[in-house]
Amino acid sequence: MRKHARYVKEDLCTACGRCAEKCPVDVPDEFEMGLANRKAIYSYFDQGVPAAFTIDREHCIYLEKQKCGVCLRFCDIGAIDFEQQDETVTLEVGAIIVAVGYDCFDPTPMGEYGFGRHPDVITSLQLERLTSSAGPTGGHVCRPSDGGHARRIGFIQCVGSRDRRNSPYCSAVCCMYATKAAILAAEHDPEVRSTIYYMDLRAGGKGFQEYLRRAREMYDVAYIRGRVAEVVAGKEHRLSIRYEDTDTGWLGEGTADLVVLCTALVPSAGIGDLARRLGVDLDAYGFVASDPLSPVQASVPGIYACGYCREPLDIPDSVTGGSAAAAKAFKALTGARE
User: Fold this and answer.
1) 259 and 114 within one domain
2) What secondary structure, in 3-state letters, does the chain show?
3) Which domain covers residue 314, as residue numbers?
4) I need a labelling partner for 319 at 20 to 30 A (CA). Which of 147, 179, 325, 328 fits?
5) Is the same domain home to 80 and 26?
6) What would the pLDDT profile of 6-28 be if each residue is shown by its tens digit?
7) Any idea where the 4Fe-4S ferredoxin-type domain is (predicted)?
């Protein structure tokens, strides 16, 4: 494995944040999905382990031009180390569990939805950060265009999913997380009203139908079975959502302050290279292939797969798969010792 240089000594850094306060460089924050900025020296996630900062080599002025060095001057405990180098770490293991997750489909090429053209058209993962109390707006659902509160939210389902042009499969989680996000937004601000435009509601898990009923009856979430044709700019920071109601064939138009695209979840970008290195097979969609009768077993003995890299799964099923993969690996290692 390659361990990238952190340029910060993990055993000395206390994550006090003084270095980041003094850093002059602003960079879009990947964890906040570009809704906020971070510094060139930063902590990717406040609750991450180890609790130490890292320096972004692509944006650090010192590493690029040998200038600045503000973090070095203001770190009283001497945790900054610009001499660190990448390391190659070799591990001898008896089993491997592949759990590399997924990537979000980029909806930019689907121009009909206006993503990248209208600032108030965002993805579901961006909304997740907006509704988080630890997010860039402290849980307030605000329009990126002007910071105003979004009172009407429109969710468009299956953006890139169940689509022959992109991902023909169902991403499995979008119906329920859109409902959860609509409830969270309404709990934070009772004036918020959400409309979910869906192809089909796929809510077959335990308690899912009750959750949908709760959203409708307690939070006034509206569900429209239809196909959205386009999202266009309206008046007074509003967006117009033009759609066909597939139950009646009626052409309708809704309005929203904020449009949320529930995008497809796709195999992570590096899964192909990883599969080649490990010698495991991928299925037709790019997920790790497994035996239907032993779902966490990859095509190579001693290698197991769990979570979304195996197939579209929600959190409970991912937890189950992770436990199964750990148990399989433990059994294999125990047998090897015997």
Assistant:
1) yes
2) CEECCCCECCCCCCCCCHHHHHCCCEEECCCCCCCCEEECEECCCCCCCCCCCEECCCCCHHHHHCCCCHHHHHCCCCCECCCCCCEECCCCCCCEEECCCEEECCCCCCHHHCECCECCEEEHHHHHHHHCCCCCCCCCCECCCCCCECCEEEEEEEECECCCCCECCCCCCHHHHHHHHHHHHHHHCCCCEEEEEECCCCCCCCCHHHHHHHHHHHHCCEEEEEEEEEEEECCCCCEEEEEEECCCCCEEEEEECEEEEEECEEECCCHHHHHHHHCCCECCCCCECCECCECCECCCCCEEECHHHCCCCCHHHHHHHHHHHHHHHHHHHHHHHC
3) 96-102+267-337
4) 179
5) yes
6) 999 999 999 999 999 999 999 99
7) 4-34, 51-85
